[in-house]
């Protein structure tokens, strides 16, 4: 259903929900000045948003959370209940957990800060319309700025837990048994192994154990 | 108190019916021994008449005293001495009537007081001692001596028992008084407690109001220092824009206004400092998780262990809050569905990522079955997954019926700034 948007044949349709006319006006102006978006309507509160969404069937709804006459979280829940097709992007002034988590739990695709730069907003709306996850802006910016270069292999010492895992691997213990032994998930055992391999410059269990014996980490 | 009332009731019944029994005993024994004692015809007729008179007296007294409190009174004294007189004359006729005469010993303090009481008891002692000294009147020196001795014994016994009874009564009175005093004290204590609770509530309200007032002052100061200043600056910049024909100059000032607005908004956000959940307000994530796990373990009785591995780093608020919420949600699922005896919360720092594992040894579940049963996938898992994905992480759930459940969140390590 989002094919049109991704191929660019049809614009992404939007519904803007905010109690401040100035904010609605600003957002409308921003999206209408950009290609690939079309604003179908505006609503000043959650209740009107739900009834408008039923008639207009937008791809994406930009939703404020705190509005007199019907808040955003209730509206998101109601949209989910009525099976609306639209993805909801929450627009909030504060990136506080208390505001946004209930919205995410109610079914919002993600949230953005109201003062997000235009491009970030456009990217998020496109991602939402395609059903992709919209990252938390606070974390996303830091993830992007964080340089995640692979470290030079073999230099970092193993953590105590990694040595524990490696000792079990050396005994021929399966991931599943290691998980049971350490009372953690198999997924985390695999993550430990990934890090182990990187640190030891090994590509599988046998190699990791061999390197560990060579370096005197085991035995 | 109930005990005292019960005893009192039994005594009332005894005072009411006792004399009848004693009269009956005396009459039966006297009739049986009339010949043996050698009662004359006159004595026999007298006895019959007096027994009838005694019955009438008892009935009359019973009728009069019904519903009146058992306290000494003139009619009571009258009843006592008439009864005594009947008992005395009957005992004169046949000593076995002393059973009736002895009725004067019991409950005398309910009918008489002061000197009348002593006189009454003495008179009763004369009747009983006289009868015991083989009948009245005493004949000859031996009888008189015996009578005198017995009378002395009776008087001593009356005195001793009277003292004991008085002491017992005093004790009962004190006991009753103590109980009443205790009840009063209890009531006073309860009242004091109520007042204390009211005061405490009032104090809380005042403290809260004081807190609210402080917070308002703080916010007002913050708004003045940050937002109001920022807005002033923005207006100044925009005024330039409104009055200049030069588009380059206008663009420059709009850009400045925009920067100022962003800066002010950032300041405002810092003022509204409810970024972190309460549990993270004072502790780092490991401490908050440890507390959450141990509190949960205490509440549910499940043996719960928290483990942190790797080099602990201060996480970004949002990452910490997300992981804490996932842990809380997973533990709450375990409490509701797992029937576990053991649970483990493990936070693993691994250089550029962090994993959080919540594992239990409960009954587990069939994941495909759960998905079919509820449209949302059940157990709030989509909510947890959405949270993890929001911070570029992932969430996996491993479970099999009978083999426990492990929820694992894996997120990039974003450091606190």
From TrEMBL, chain A:
Residue ranges of the TM segments: none
HTH luxR-type domain residues: 151-216
Gene3D superfamilies xref list: 3.40.50.2300
GO biological process, any: regulation of DNA-templated transcription
PROSITE patterns: HTH_LUXR_1, HTH_LUXR_2, RESPONSE_REGULATORY
Organism domain of life: Bacteria
Keywords: DNA-binding, Phosphoprotein, Transcription, Transcription regulation
InterPro entries: CheY-like_superfamily, NreC/VraR/RcsB-like_REC, Sig_transdc_resp-reg_C-effctor, Sig_transdc_resp-reg_receiver, Tscrpt_reg_LuxR_C, WalR-like
GO molecular function, one term: DNA binding
Residue ranges occupied by any Response regulatory domain in the UniProt entry: 13-129
Positions where 4-aspartylphosphate occurs in the chain: 64
Stored Pfam families: GerE, Response_reg
Cross-referenced PANTHER family: TRANSCRIPTIONAL REGULATORY PROTEIN NARL-RELATED, TWO-COMPONENT RESPONSE REGULATOR
Protein name, per record: DNA-binding response regulator
């Amino acid at each position: 259903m989002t094919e049109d948007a991704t191929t660019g044949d049809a614009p992404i349709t939007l519904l803007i929900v905010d109690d401040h006319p100035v904010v609605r006006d600003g957002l409308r102006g921003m999206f209408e000045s950009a290609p690939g978006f079309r604003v179908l309507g505006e609503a000043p509160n959650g209740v009107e948003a739900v009834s408008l969404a039923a008639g207009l069937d937008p791809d994406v709804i930009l939703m404020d959370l705190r509005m007199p006459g019907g808040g955003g979280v209730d509206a998101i829940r109601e949209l989910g209940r009525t099976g609306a097709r639209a993805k909801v992007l929450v627009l909030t002034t504060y990136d506080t957990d208390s505001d946004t988590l209930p919205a995410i739990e109610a079914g919002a695709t993600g949230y953005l800060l109201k003062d997000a730069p235009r491009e970030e907003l456009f990217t998020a709306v496109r991602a939402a319309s395609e059903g992709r996850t919209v990252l938390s802006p606070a974390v996303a910016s830091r993830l992007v700025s964080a340089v995640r270069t692979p470290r030079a292999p073999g230099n970092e010492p193993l953590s105590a837990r990694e040595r524990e895992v490696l000792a079990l691997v050396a005994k021929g213990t399966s991931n599943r048994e290691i998980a049971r032994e350490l009372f953690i998930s198999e997924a985390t055992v695999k993550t430990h192994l990934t890090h182990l391999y990187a640190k030891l410059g090994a590509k599988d269990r046998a190699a990791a154990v061999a390197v560990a014996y060579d370096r005197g980490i085991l035995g | 108190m109930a005990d005292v009332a019960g005893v009192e009731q039994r005594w009332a019944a005894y005072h009411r019916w006792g004399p009848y029994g004693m009269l009956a005993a005396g009459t039966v024994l006297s009739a049986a021994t009339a010949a043996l004692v050698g009662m004359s015809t006159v004595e026999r007729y007298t006895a019959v008449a007096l027994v009838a008179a005694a019955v009438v007296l008892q009935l009359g007294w019973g009728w009069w005293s019904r519903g009146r409190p058992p306290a000494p009174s003139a009619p009571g004294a009258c009843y006592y001495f008439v009864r005594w007189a009947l008992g005395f004359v009957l005992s004169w006729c046949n000593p076995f009537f002393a059973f009736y005469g002895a009725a004067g010993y019991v409950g005398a303090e309910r009918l008489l007081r002061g000197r009348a009481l002593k006189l009454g008891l003495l008179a009763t002692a004369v009747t009983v001692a006289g009868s015991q000294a083989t009948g009245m009147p005493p004949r000859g020196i031996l009888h008189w001596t015996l009578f005198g001795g017995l009378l002395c014994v009776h008087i001593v016994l009356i005195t001793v028992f009277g003292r004991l009874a008085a002491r017992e009564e005093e004790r009962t009175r004190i006991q009753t008084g103590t109980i009443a005093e205790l009840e009063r004290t209890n009531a006073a204590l309860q009242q004091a407690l109520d007042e204390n609770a009211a005061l405490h509530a009032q104090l809380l309200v005042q403290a809260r109001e004081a807190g609210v007032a402080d917070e308002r002052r703080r916010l007002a100061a913050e708004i003045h220092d940050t937002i109001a200043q920022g807005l002033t600056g923005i207006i100044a910049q925009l005024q330039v824009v409104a009055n200049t024909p030069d588009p380059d100059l206008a663009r420059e000032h709009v850009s400045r206004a925009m920067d100022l607005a962003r800066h002010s908004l950032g300041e405002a956000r810092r003022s509204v400092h409810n970024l972190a959940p309460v549990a993270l307000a004072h502790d780092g994530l490991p401490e908050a998780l440890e507390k959450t796990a141990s509190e949960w373990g205490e509440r549910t009785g499940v043996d719960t262990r928290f483990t942190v591995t790797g080099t602990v780093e201060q996480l970004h608020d949002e990452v910490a809050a997300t992981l804490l919420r996932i842990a809380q949600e997973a533990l709450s699922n375990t409490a509701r569905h797992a029937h576990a005896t053991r649970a483990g919360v493990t936070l693993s720092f691994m250089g550029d990522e962090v994993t959080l594992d919540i594992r239990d040894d409960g009954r587990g579940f069939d994941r495909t079955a759960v998905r079919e049963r509820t449209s949302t996938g059940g157990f709030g898992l989509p909510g947890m997954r959405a949270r993890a994905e929001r911070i570029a992480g992932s969430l996996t759930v491993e479970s099999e019926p009978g083999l426990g459940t492990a929820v694992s969140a894996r997120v990039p390590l974003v450091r606190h700034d």
